């Protein structure tokens, strides 16, 4: 792995993120998040200026078996590209086959390997963060995937399992050797999950040592944080996760800050419109959901309302107490209930 100082171009806040043949003009992207980054939320973020989005984590074995619920996680909506399919697995052959299936769908711009998810049921299968124990397996997975498709293959991982076992450089080298077009690092260790400070110093060291683009993730909650990460670490792109839930306009705030204007917070009218549009898109998406097996699941509008609950908690966080919102969410069982709660929240705003 060659050692190089990040170029001045890489420090420019809006220089494109290049992933193989794909050029992402706005290098601030939405992280993959289970339960959140379905097509509806991805499209809301794209319309707010996000440069690239990722699907929820998708089981490669389920995809190869033709599982309808797994396939549903790869549903897309018009106008949301570029979008990455985010797969997890540990068998290079299965991952390659799943990647070939993704390419044949002709609706994704790259395929990403999950090598950092700390969720116990995924780690127990030897997937996600468990792959960090075996960088050579990451190399073999990426090599098999890149041999199977023409789409760029990337990796998302963490800097290591624990503070006394930082493996970022080793993991980056394995991804490079496999032929990865880019690598994203969550700048926390597996045992920290999403808590505690993010180690941006390690991001800077990895960026200086990598030949492929590096995307930084972790510790970004504001537009200022996003620009500071790129400036201080030299990363090629910045990945934003939980901070965008309930605040998709964060991406537009970053763009405003780059252009030298103080980010104007969305008006109550804008926030209300964004929520209602998100809800509408989610209802459309639920019409395609094959998981409506029980009687309570048969109405896609009910499914959309229930799925929207955690988003409501985030969207309305600044309008009233979290405890009050959480209590009121228990009475939501239909789209009408959701709309009524949104209308109530903004009833006294201009």
Task: Give a description of the structure.
By secondary structure, the chain is of the alpha/beta class. The chain is built from 15 helices and ten strands.
Give the SSE layout:
Blueprint: H1 8-11, E1 17-19, E2 22-24, E3 28-30, H2 39-47, E4 53-59, H3 60-65, H4 68-72, E5 83-88, H5 92-105, E6 110-115, H6 120-123, H7 135-148, E7 153-158, H8 168-178, E8 182-186, H9 200-209, E9 214-217, H10 223-233, E10 237-240, H11 250-258, H12 268-286, H13 300-315, H14 322-329, H15 335-345
Helix pairs in contact: 2-12, 5-7, 7-8, 10-11, 12-13, 12-15, 13-15
Write a short abstract of this structure.
The chain is of the alpha/beta class and 350 residues long.
CATH architecture of the largest domain: Alpha-Beta Barrel
Give the total of domains: 2
Q: Note poorly predicted spans.
A: 1-11
Strand content: 5-15%
* Rg value: 20 Å
The assigned structural class equals alpha/beta
> What is the fourth-level CATH superfamily of the largest domain?
Aldolase class I
Major β-sheet, in short? Answer: 8 strands, parallel
Number of helices: 15
Helicity, in percent? 40-55%
Please give the CATH class of the largest domain: Alpha Beta
Number of strands: 10
Spatial separation of the terminal alpha carbons: 56 Å
Strand order of the largest sheet: 3-10-9-8-7-6-5-4
